[in-house]
Amino acid sequence: MYDIVGDIHGYADELELLLAKLGYQKKNSIWQHSERTLISVGDLIDRGPQQKRAVDIIRAMTANGFAKTIMGNHEFNAVAYYVRDKNGEPLRAHTVKNRQQHLAFLNEAEAIPTWYHEAISWFKQLPVLLDLPELRVVHACWHPTSVEVLKDYCTDNFTLKPSYFKQANDSAHPLYHALEVLMKGWELSLPEGVSFNDKDGHKRDKIRTRWWLEQDGNYQDLAIGVPDVSILPNERVPSSQMPGYDNAKPLFIGHYWLHESAEAVSAHIACVD
Ligand SMILES: [Mn+2]
């Protein structure tokens, strides 16, 4: 049996409380259960007060067969922030904004360089998705076309081959776009001429979506993070513009702060963030 946990984001105390509540026990400093396996949907890092501990707990569980973990957009970005191309440039620019988003992790990791290096090596080999006999797990969105693209750059267990991290961060490369969908979700272009200002005042002509809705939705139903949805067209979005889900297996995702507690967002999809 599996227990699926949402984005941990450096909250190790809360993770341990949850593990204890689920009946896991710490033996030889590794959390474990005799009958159950934990699955993390990714985003172990950034934001919270116990970055290293959160990683170490899940990493030890995973190494000993008590957990499975996939890559979230935060682990992906952490790798790109650390890894440099052959010219010595980081794959993810060290801008003020990028450093700020990653600061809780960097403050702990940069103080222990050997641990930082090991953590990045571990992040690099996390699978982007799990397709188990009984269920699927991906950080943000299951999109068959993106899964197919990913296969060309991965090992059999959906781990990115190390030589492709540069392409994975190149917006001109199909791998970049596949990973954007799988780890950050489905974006939808608004009709010609329609835009809105996001919470930071930036003009946007795309929306993040509740891509899992089973019935065709209009732009207002589908939008996430639009301060005032009434400015969006009350117009049906053709299903051809959405990823759909084949409902072949239950799917578990994280990533989205939906304010509701973890629950099924459609008959076949649950968001556990
Ligand atoms: Mn995320």
UniProtKB/TrEMBL annotation:
Transmembrane segments: none annotated. Residues 4-105 form the Calcineurin-like phosphoesterase domain. Belongs to the 5'-nucleotidase family. This is Metallophosphoesterase. It comes from Rheinheimera maricola.
